Amino acid sequence: MNLKQHWYKWVAAIFLMYVVLGGLYLPLKPGITAVTPVRLESGNNISIKLNVYNAPWLRDNTSAVESLPKQEEFQIPAKVILVSKGVEGRWESQKIEFSGNHGQLIALFDFKMGKSKIPNDNYSVFIELSNGKYLGLPDAIFLGRSAGDTVGVSTMTSSSNANIAVEQESFEMKFPNRVVLNESVRNLFYHVPMWFAMLALLGIAAWYALKYLRFSNLEDDIMADALIRVGILAGILGCITGATWARVTWQSWWPAADPKLNGVAIGMTMYMAYLLLRSTMNDPYQRARITSVYSVFIFPIFIALIVIMPKLSPNSLHPGSGGTVGFNKYDLDSTMRLFFYPAVIGWIALFYWIANLRLRIAQLNEKQLNK
Amino acid sequence: MKTSVSEQFDANAAELLAHHNLMNAVYGVLVIIFVGILLYLVRLDRKISRLEKNQS
To answer: What is the DSSP string of A33-56?
Structure first.
């Protein structure tokens, strides 16, 4: 292989190797995955169970946390605190214990509100580590006032709660740990670039279709056709991988309320119609002219349907559209970017490579027909 | 320690969540992509075979 001519094949091979191996190998940051019970009543001593994911300091299974050295490099859970947006003050655990189970932490609380009026509210749970950092799970517990809790002292500590920064600013080669997503956050490198590849290929195809309309060179039409066919392959893979991901995170194979999914359904149908349209005509020049006009026409509509409309819509499940937070907000120290951008480039190069194979077959086919 | 039904339910839910780490979704997605690309390559392979047969 001539390196200069085939550079994108090398890009595909090297980048994808890096993305697949690195994307599977790197661990997730520690995070709280579950808190039980989710509903509490004040006036009691209550133990709350926290499931913590990927936290090496829970492996020790030591009950005497206090006796461990509290240095910077040792991240030991110091206490568990509950805070709420609507409440000035915080509940701090009296004691924490490691349960027998791996990855579980038990925090003992003494919830006594006494006479002070503290509203019933949703509380976020934080684990304060010995190095001053926090792990958090937003709005994890609803704390209500029980009828019996009218006398006694409040055990709530007053504080402004302003200085709790959950995210760790220091750079770590670890992926962010988000509620619901958990390990499947890695699919960012495999599902999302399918759509980038589809858009890239369809965009180049629209360019070649325009070129055909300008110069009437059948070579351009064959190129556009090969790109669209492989673009549709990427789109189909994007749909199936997206459905798989949605099943485990959104609990549905195809949540119809999502504007991006509806847009994709219409857009894919338009490109299926392209295949149908092309198959109905035999004269190469007529076929090329009509399908070129069609593909130039539908490409901007496709962009509007899957990129612009979801961004404008009032609600969406997809990140970064319809008021939802984009993935860039999850990725505060840019570890994901180190894999996401190479993934986009690598997958585009791979699908372009496949389109190139499809093109060469079509060219050979054309030559044999003309013989 | 007495446990009510709802606490028991919470404990079960937590247990489920703890073992539900979604890594399988990542493997599933990768398998789907590679199988999909492989099937397409097999189709291209057949097309090339047909062309070769016509040539001879």
So the answer is: EEEE-SEEESSEEEEEEEEEES-G
Q: What is the DSSP letter of A28?
A: B
CATH code 2.60.40.10 region(s) in chain A: 31-144
pLDDT exceeds 50 at position B1: no
Which band of pLDDT confidence, cut at 50, 70 and 90, is reported for residue A134? Answer: confident
Token code pair at residue A223: 């190129």
Contact A51 B13 (CB under 8 A): no
Judge contact between A127 and A80, C-beta under 8 A: yes
Q: What is the ipTM of this complex?
A: 0.81
A5-35 tens-digit pLDDT: 788 999 999 999 999 999 999 888 888 888 8
Indicate the CATH number of A31-144 among 2.60.40.10, 3.90.1140.10, 3.40.50.300, 1.25.40.10.
2.60.40.10
Distance from CA of B14 to the nearest CA of A (A): 6
With an 8 Å Cβ cutoff, are A237 and B30 in contact?
no
CA–chain centroid gap for A227, Å, is 27
- Name the H helices within chain A: 7-25, 192-215, 218-249, 259-279, 284-303, 309-312, 327-330, 337-370
Give Cα separations from A122 to A41, A144, A351, B5 (angstroms).
Answer: 12, 9, 47, 22
The residue among B5, B40, B44 with the most chain A CBs within 10 A of its CB, best to mutate, is B40
Query: Which run of H or of E encompasses A32?
Result: strand A31-36
CB-CB neighbors (< 8 A) of A365 in chain B: 47, 51
> Which range (A64-73, A272-281, B35-44) has the least confidence?
A64-73
Reference A124, options A137, A142, A111, A114; nearest CA is A137
